[in-house]
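Hey,

The postdoc asked me to send both predictions to you directly instead of through the lab channel. I've kept everything plain text so nothing gets mangled by the mail client. Protein one:
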Amino acid sequence: MARAVSNFRCTECGWTSIKWVGRCGECQQWGTVTDAGAATGITKRVSTVAVSEASGARSITEIGAESVAHWPSGIAEFDRVLGGGVVPGAAILLSGEPGVGKSTLLLEVASRAAASGQRVLYVTAEESVSQVRLRAERTNALHPSLFLAAETDLGTILGQIDHVKPQLVIVDSVQTVASAATEGIAGGPSQVREVASTLIRVSKDQNLPILLVGHVTKDGNIAGPRLLEHLVDVVLQFEGDRQTALRFVRAHKNRFGSTEEVGCFEMTGEGIAEVSDPSGLFLSHARQPVSGTCVTIALEGRRALPVEVQALIVKSQAPQPRRVVNGVDASRVAMLLAVLERRAGIPLSTFDVYVSTVGGIRVTEPGADLAIALAIASAYKDKAYSATMAVVGEISLAGEIRPASSSKQRRAEATRLGFSTVIDSDAAHVREALRLAFAGATDERVQIPEF
């Protein structure tokens, strides 16, 4: 008689092994390999279930298109990312770095929803109710329709939902809640999967929207099994630098709207405040034009924002000059330095180069290449550009300027903000763009001497 062999399976990717290992050999995740039971060699047959005429499949042309009803949370920037507001029965996962302000944002959402007439249940599994109450008092988030509960047991949380009967539930966080019906510690793959699936099932059964807070790993990924992101309807990422007050909310997955919208917020002493028009946050307030600066129109989701790029050139005595960047991609800056030296004749190999953005925003899109190149050239020539000039374009290794995406939207935003001169793909080469910029030319073609 053949001996039964234990089959160990990874809960993340399904990889199997004949023995237990601490790390999956396929997805390289730790603690995801579990015993799937002994292999018996017997294949079970699934019986056929009769389907009635009412529940049977219908032609897609016979099914009516029902619009998803959103209700506003009271924060326009948050609703913008969600696609118009919170959808009843939706499961929303919000993740972000520790200390970025996830709990502060959701407490503000809970307060605004309670002020609009909704009963809100805020479950904290990381703090006491007294701590949350103190933060709510500091941020003016107190409301009698907002209920607090400090629970880490899934069954108790379900009892609180039945007791309060809320229209919105916030759980902070899903990695700190455990179920007595599943083995393992809170935050483990099995516990996170059980807690999330149970809360999502309650959300669908009761048509109750649930906001879940998710921790992230050191790589920036959401902690727990990858299945968590597939179960929820919306995955939001809360981004921001601790050294700056600006915060962004992006949607990586949204079943009820677009994933290209971005919400802008600012952390203040009284909590978090939405920024409906962040156009002036990434521009310096110098009264006179300064050399080494150039403005580009960057895209954050569907939103066009003016961003000022600053550069500083210093003669270096070291054999290898320094290249220090902040807010831009270091590899693209190195490429642009090579293009400027080879295609535009600007010798930069003996200079320390410093490039940064204003306001702490990070710009990684290729459309900012032209602004970086012009800022470096301005610092080298020690000559300032016109204060009404904005540039957009991607620079190739041949020195050619390629058009950036959504050029019409960028030009419209530049015109709205008072930038009368816009240099983009109309300048076919980086040398021509440099001549246009230093001459202060408009969109009209004029005869300009060589740079």
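Protein two:
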Amino acid sequence: MDAAAYQAFTTELTRRADADGRFRGLVALGSMAARDYLPDDFSDHDFFAVVEPEHAETLRQERGWLPRADDIALAFRETAHGVKVVYRDGHLLEFAVFTLEELSFARVNRYRVLLDRGGVAARLEEQSRMTTQEVQRTASDDAWLFGQWLTQVLVGLGRHARGEVLSGRARLDDAVRLFCLLLARHVPAPEASLLDGLDPLRRVERVYPATGGELARALEGDSPGLARALLRLAARELSHVPAFPRAGVAAVEARLQALHG
């Protein structure tokens, strides 16, 4: 969906919500919020529909309030509040229908209030602050993150060598996520504000072009190659961190050499 079509969809969605007395607010999320970065041809529409309590369940089940409802190819209930919709042209909606009180279940970072009939902006500001505090409170220390990262690499290599290729790759994929968490924590970058505190893989290639590009290329290869890339990139980018596990990395490198040459 190009920029003009994307904006037209947002405008129509907002118009429909504003004309429907069951809605109390509409909140754009992620790229739809157009904060820090704009939606592109690959962006989905992510939003919260804030509705009156007596209409919440109906609006989770109905599709007629959405733009182009006749073009919907797939719609399903993802969570108690959340719905995913796919149109025939492949465009995706991910949204949740909340009452004002149910917004307390939401985790938000980037958002923009498109419609507010009272209390929505204030509640979202509170939830954004609480989300930030939760992320900071539950952030693991460096020793734990490095330990988890390195042992995921080690277990992934072992399972791959055993013939459990799928399970081994899943462990290495988690090691990629942990590496990106550590990268964001310890390697400053001019565009670091574009990173997503709720998903450490988002926009890594843009913020860290060289490292992100190398990692992306390694992900296209086999698991031993991905493990080598993770160990190499960690030594290059993160060895300055006091908790960097030098002896552990050396042990895993030796194991990799023994298993895969």
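Summary for protein two, as requested: Residues 142-260 form one domain.

Thanks,
C.
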